[in-house]
């Protein structure tokens, strides 16, 4: 094992190493000095609530730009004369951008610092929301691209920040962050149609409203930009992720479970409208399902980290997700809310476990940031194929019944990938100081 690889080991692993070489002794001394430096120069150590509040507000803004469109998709399509293919593209583009722009996150973070990048991207997200809701068809697609790119970059950076500043409570903090993310999605899914009706049946006002939470989050995140993070500001390059099978298993699980999530965000209201619900009712069902995710998104990582690994938890939450999806698609409409609740319990757990795996499979925050970039970059690119496939199959068949095959294939793939990603191992990489 070379010296740079040893630097990725935790302090406890170094201190209990069987052979205390001079190099290891020097590493332990440096680690203790780093801790003292962080305690002296990191004001958030004394005010962790400020960072926690900032993380929650940022997470609240990582889904409204996506979930607010689904309940209004039919109205937007009629207003702008969009074809079925264009409507399908509108649901696919933001998810595709989550993946395509995710690799920029660690590059920007090394150049400007993660805190500055998060602030700048929140403002970019606000710009995308304004563009999407005010400039017709061109603005709609351009704003969707900008919004998806912004969410993709911020979403990559937050797990690394959690690993860095809340390392001893990574599972719980990931659950809190995911819970806030689900709350934002639920708020947007349930209130966008009523907001548009309140503002004179204007879908543009309904979509544009979500610029306000983005700007509020930017204001509360601003103190982080001026904070010094001591030794954590050192830039590292992580090598070997693309050759590591475990990293690919984490990536596939992230992508496949996300594919089901974005099918729900993009198409569930349309599916339910096709089954006889009104747009408002369909939006409320989606919102209710996402609200249920609050419970499982917080509980699943906590429970999963109490066992020897996360494989059983992954199978359970994915089984709940598939049961809820099939119920919403095929079961009698009278029992719809029961299936929506089941779907919410499953999907809250699948996503929070995907983020937890990034943290648990990484030895330190540098590896976590790069694994987050890989899993979300490749994963969301893969995930975008799910909503696109739903649109294509719906056009081919003229109905929704054939979607069960898509759900089943994606769900089975997610379980297989999760059985590998859920093992209690670390990705094997090298960290090099730049």
TrEMBL record:
Keywords (A to Z) from UniProt: Membrane, Transmembrane, Transmembrane helix
Keyword field contains Transmembrane helix: yes
Membrane spanning residue stretches: 49-66, 86-105, 117-135, 141-162, 174-195, 207-225, 246-268, 280-300, 312-333, 339-360, 367-390, 402-426
Keyword Isomerase: no
PANTHER family: 2-NITROIMIDAZOLE TRANSPORTER, PTHR23523
Name the UniProt record assigns to this protein: CynX/NimT family MFS transporter
